[in-house]
Amino acid sequence: MSFKPGQSGNPAGRPKGTKDKRTEFRELLRPHAPDLIKKAVEMALEGDATALKLCLDKLIPNLRPQAEPVSIQFNGESLLEKGQEILKAVSKGEITPEEGNHLLAALANYGGLVGKEQSLKRHRDYQSFDAIFKGGIL
């Protein structure tokens, strides 16, 4: 059964314009926000651990892990040889397995781009050759 253009897949679903409960709660709290913030800070300063955690989480959010730059000396020319160099660096402990995984994924993506570029070049070369051949130049 396929969907028809202009028809809902769930006609008995939520009507258009209906607000999400979280949106309703935000709108309900918005006019009281300054007072609520003052109260949370006041409670935190009085020693309420939950209020303190709430305030600190807003001031200093949790850090997200970030990858550090990695430098590898590549001896190989081909993408395959470069991939082997990455695996050697992981096996020697020069880079972490996660870093190696990211580098291999980037190398694979780059290899895909190179392959597409080469395919397009061959296609263009073929079209040029075909035009010359059909044009009676040769």
From TrEMBL:
Q: Which residues form the DUF5681 domain?
A: 3-59
Give the residue ranges for region: Disordered. Answer: 1-24
Composition bias of kind Polar residues appears in 1-10
A Pfam family this chain is assigned to: DUF5681
Q: What is this protein called?
A: DUF5681 domain-containing protein
Organism equals: Nitrosococcus halophilus (strain Nc4)
